[in-house]
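Subgroup meeting minutes
Present: P.N., E.W., G.H.
Scribe: E.W.

1. P.N. recapped why we're keeping a running log of single-chain structure predictions: easier to compare across weeks, and new members can see raw inputs and outputs side by side.
2. G.H. added today's entry (107 aa).
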Amino acid sequence: MLTAYVISPDERKRALKCAECGLTYSVKDYDLLYSNQKLIYFKFKSPNSKRSKIYCHECILKAMAASEPAKEELKIKIITKHWEFICTYYPNEIDGDAEDFFKQIFK
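Output recorded in log:
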């Protein structure tokens, strides 16, 4: 199972930058976007990597799929400060819009 941790704005002191697309925001701007359900950054460590990387919500699923390319489905655990969400995601759906998938995190 692959695990991604939601980065809460109050846990950071420095700007966040997506390792995949380079999307960068200050903590203040991220707090505003996160509070308005527009952006989520995740910390994810691929099984093939030594260190965790930060990904935006548009890139996290692509990064997870790339870490397990032979899988037809991905078992994913998303962890926030208060809960864990476990789901199955199919890589052929990753090219689509991830917005609906992540709406549940903001609830």
